[in-house]
Amino acid sequence: MTTTTPEAAIADARERIDALDDRIIGLIQERMAVSAVVQQTRIASGGRRVHLSREMEILARYRDALGKPGTGLAMTLLELCRGRV
């Protein structure tokens, strides 16, 4: 029987968190790139860089999935993705 110490369990969990954070950061960077394409295309076709009703949909999606803190997270993502064109 293998016994894991609390310290080892914590270290393992922290490694998993670090790996998840790396993936999350990569996904955010990918989201920023895709958002830049959307903004460039919209501007090139005479539209505005920011589409407020779309941003409201995103805010609602995050709030529905994660509760009130999800709104703050979505706002941060939207801020990261705005104005990169």
TrEMBL record:
EC class (word): isomerase
Molecular-function GO term, any one: chorismate mutase activity
Pfam families linked to this entry: CM_2
Residue ranges of domain Chorismate mutase in the record: 4-85
Keyword Isomerase (UniProt): yes
Key words, A-Z: Isomerase
Known EC number: 5.4.99.5
Alphabetical list of InterPro entries matching this protein: Chorismate_II_sf, Chorismate_mutase_highGC-bac, CM_dom_sf, CM_II_prokaryot
Record's keyword annotation contains Isomerase: yes
Matches recorded under SMART domains: CM_2 (SM00830)
Protein name (database record): Chorismate mutase
Organism of provenance: Streptomyces lavenduligriseus
